[in-house]
Every structure is written in C-alpha cells, then in structure tokens.
Design brief:
The chain is mainly α. It has one domain: Hydantoin permease. 77% of the residues lie in helices and 0% in strands. The mean pLDDT is 92. Bound molecules: phenylalanine (PHE).
Length: 461
C-alpha cells in the first residue's frame, strides 16, 4: 500500500535535482581532502580496495535504505523514524536513531567547517599568486603558519559557517540546487586536468602503484575500520542527511538508479583526487602519510609549477569550497528541519540557532591545531576525537541500525512498495542489507574493540 505524506519543507523539482543535491552532499572534503590523506596514512592500495568494497556492498544498499525511509516518512529523521516505527508495529524508541544522526551531523559540521575554512584561506592565497614557484618546504611552512594561528582559523571557520547557514536559511532549493548543477561538472573537469598534470610530473607510476597495488599485510583492524567509516562518511550515510534529502524526493523517482549514479560520481571524484595527489607527493619527496595537511601542502607545489597556475589554483580552491558548501548544508539540514517541525519557529531562526551551536563546538577543532595541539587523550586531539567518533563510530552504527530497520523491521510489502524495483534487484538489495552489510560492519567493529578475538578464542578458533 502506498503511503501519501507530504513534506512541510517542500520537494525537489525532480529526479535530477535530487541526484545533484545528494551528489553535492556526498562529494565534498571527504573525497578531496580526507580520502587522499587517510589512504596515505593507511598504506594505500589495500585500504583503497577495502574502501571500494565497502562502497559497493555496504554503502549502496544502505544508501538505498536511507533514501527509502526518508521518502516514506517525509519528515526530519527523528519524526520519520518514529512514524515509520509505529506504522510497522515497532517501538517508537527507534526515533533515537534519528537523534543520533542529528547530533552526528552537528559534530561533523563543527570540524568540517574549520577545514573548509582552510580552503577559503587557500583560495585567497591562490588569487594573490602566493603559490607561484613555491617549494615543498615553503608549502609546508605556509600550511603550518595558517593552522598555527587560532584566530585566523576562527575567522575562516566563522565565515564558512555563515555561508552555510545562509543557504540553509533560504531553503535548500533556492540557491544550491542551481549552483551545484554547474559546479560539480566543473570540479570533475578540473580534477582531470590535475591528473593530466600529475601524469607528467615524473612519479605517476609510483603514485598509481601506491594507490592501487594492494598489500594486505599493511592493513590493520584499525585501518579496516577507517576504510569502512570513510565509506559512510563519503556517501553521507548513517546520520540522516540522505534520509532528509530522500524526504523531499518525488514519488515516481527510482531510488536504486539514483543511488547508483550518486555512488559512482562520488567514487570517481575520490579516485581522481588520489590520482592527482600521490604522483605529486612522490615527485617532490613528500610523505604520503603526513596527515590532514596533505592536499594543502602538495597541491600548491603543483600549481606553483604549472603554466597558468594562478588561474588553476584559484579555480581549484573555489570548487573545493563549493563541494564543501553543498555537503555542509546537508549536515545541518536534519537538525534545522527537526527544530522547525518541533517548535514552528522560522527557518531563519532555526538556522541561526543551529549555526551558533555548531560554530561554538567548532572552536575545539580550531584550537586542536595550535593551543590545544598537545592536549591529547589517548594520543588524539579534540579534532581527532570528533573525527573518530563521528566517522568511525556514529556513522557505521547509524548505518547498521538503518539497515536493520529497513530489512528486518519493515515489512516486505512496505519496502518493496517504496523501492519499486524488479524482483531480482529487490532480492539483491534485501540480501545485501539484511545480511552482508550488517555482518561486515559488526565484524569490523568487534575486531577493533577486541571483542571478535575474545569470541573466537571462546569458540576455540
Ligand atoms: N559526504 C561528505 C564528504 O565527503 C561529508 C558528509 C558526511 C556530508 C555526512 C553529509 C553527511 O565530504
């Protein structure tokens, strides 16, 4: 039986608008900033392979589930989960899943905005030709200079938060839907140009083999968790962003086809970013595992050497800002939609309140790179903890709960009615979601916590 509910926040104009918005959410700092540096820190090839495996077999089925729940519930993730749980005769406490997502979104945005601030600052530098002929050393000290100064970081973080909340306050459809249409293809073209440059930089083969030669001895349980967590992060899964976007999706659109296009685009951007960056890393004798500063210390060197480098550098950082911007709005949209539905205050007010809260938490990340750089708990700074807890714990955990709800709690009639797929496709989705996705996530989590070894030892294996 088809359920007819309406979203009080409006609807996407159609299939393409949804694909663009969700791709805008998925493609972001995760692809261009985070993927290369975590691949670098975790030894490359084997990590990348595992990440691709997670995207295909865990990410896609869970993304379909999340869009499906959103479209059926047509409210913010908290109310959607409550409504659907009641409809399926399950406990209303499923709404806690929505809560966890709303909180994860705010926590992620709090540090995401600080990193996006780096991109803002680098855009300014690029326009002024700061990277012209820059050496590897100067590039390193330039980055160190930026992150070492807390008030500069705070300024850029504040600016990025204002940009984000401005768009969210206008409603998603007004500005961003249009901007993303143009900017995502432009980003792709620019990345291809960068890869073209990397091919000539002398170390292309070395870069490619780092990225694609899988040596599984380099893979620890921790890096398996990072690869899986990143699959959730990069597809914006497990926290309700995709659910909220699904709640604005018109009835007729095929969820499976849309989701596959989104995942393909997202993966392409990440791989291209890796192919552009690692050859430059090796050609300049830099460290692939140098951490969060990786693209900010390598790319300027490339831009500094290429003809029309000033133009390409400015364009690149501008597009990176847009990619981050379209992701950032999806990170707070669940919280803002909830606040509006709950209190009926205006969208503007709700945006200001959530923006202030997120901005405030972000100050912790700002300090993590300077005055709190040495204030570590178990070897991790405030920023490291935020990133670890959200990407490696909350998102996979949220993802598993979404899978459990979609494939175990929800009746077959409801999910097949909403997914509207052929029999084969539907069975495949259900199998992957019901078993594979859930089991994989649980195994990795148990391995990291040491629980798996304990169970295996008990079983005498
Ligand atoms: N997918 C975004 C990126 O890769 C980040 C994000 C995570 C956005 C979760 C929304 C929800 O940059």
């Amino acid at each position: 039986m088809s359920v007819q509910r309406e979203s009080m926040h409006g609807m996407w104009s159609g299939r393409l608008a949804f694909i663009l918005a969700a791709t805008g959410s998925a493609v972001g700092l995760g692809n261009i900033w985070k993927f290369p540096y975590i691949a670098g820190e975790n030894g490359g090839g084997a990590f990348v392979l595992l990440y691709l495996f997670c995207i295909a077999l865990i990410g896609i089925p869970i993304m379909m589930s999340e869009v499906m729940l959103g479209r059926r519930g047509r409210q913010n993730p908290i109310n959607t989960m409550r409504t659907l749980a009641l409809e399926e005769n399950a406990r209303p406490s499923w709404h806690w899943l929505g809560w966890m997502g709303v909180i994860a979104g705010i926590l992620i945005l709090s540090y995401y905005s600080v990193i996006a601030g780096w991109a803002l600052s680098y855009f300014k530098d690029a326009v002024f030709g700061t990277f012209d002929g820059i050496s590897a050393e100067t590039a390193g000290s330039h980055f160190g200079g930026l992150v070492g100064s807390w008030w500069v970081l705070l300024l850029w973080h504040t600016l990025f938060m204002m940009m984000t909340m401005f768009v969210v306050s206008k409603g998603v459809r007004g500005g961003l839907e249009r901007a993303v249409t143009l900017l995502m293809p432009a980003l792709l073209v620019l990345l291809l140009i960068m890869v073209g440059y990397a091919m000539k930089s002398g170390a292309f083969a070395q870069g490619m083999s780092f990225l694609f030669d899988a040596d599984f001895s380099k893979l620890s349980p921790e890096s398996a968790l990072t690869a899986m967590g990143h699959a959730f992060f990069t597809l914006s899964l497990g926290m309700g962003a995709i659910m909220v976007y699904g709640s604005y999706l018109p009835e007729k659109v095929s969820i499976s086809k849309a989701v596959i296009s989104i995942a393909l685009a997202d993966t392409a951007v990440a791989l291209l970013a890796g192919m552009a960056i690692f050859p430059i890393v090796f050609a300049n004798g830099l460290e692939p595992g140098s951490g969060p500063g990786l693209i900010f210390t390598t790319l300027p060197i490339a831009f500094g050497q290429m003809p029309f480098g000033v133009i390409f550098a400015s364009l690149f950082f501008l597009l990176l800002i847009f990619a981050a911007w379209s992701s950032a709005i999806s990170l707070v949209e669940p919280a803002v939609a909830w606040l509006i539905e709950k209190t009926h205050i205006s969208r503007l007010r709700a945006s200001v309140l959530m923006g202030l809260l997120t901005w405030f938490i972000g100050i912790g990340t700002v300090f993590s790179f300077n005055i709190w750089a040495e204030a570590k708990v178990s070897g991790k700074t405030f920023f490291d903890w935020m990133d670890y807890l959200t990407a490696n714990v909350m998102l996979p955990f949220g993802g598993v709960l979404i899978a459990i709800f979609a494939a175990w709690v929800m009746r077959k009639e409801s999910s097949s009615d909403e997914l509207k797929m052929g029999a084969m496709g539907y069975s495949l989705w259900r199998f992957l979601t019901r078993y594979l996705a859930i089991i994989c996530v649980l195994i990795v989590m148990m391995k990291v916590t040491g629980l798996l070894d304990l169970v295996l030892a008990k079983a005498g294996l």
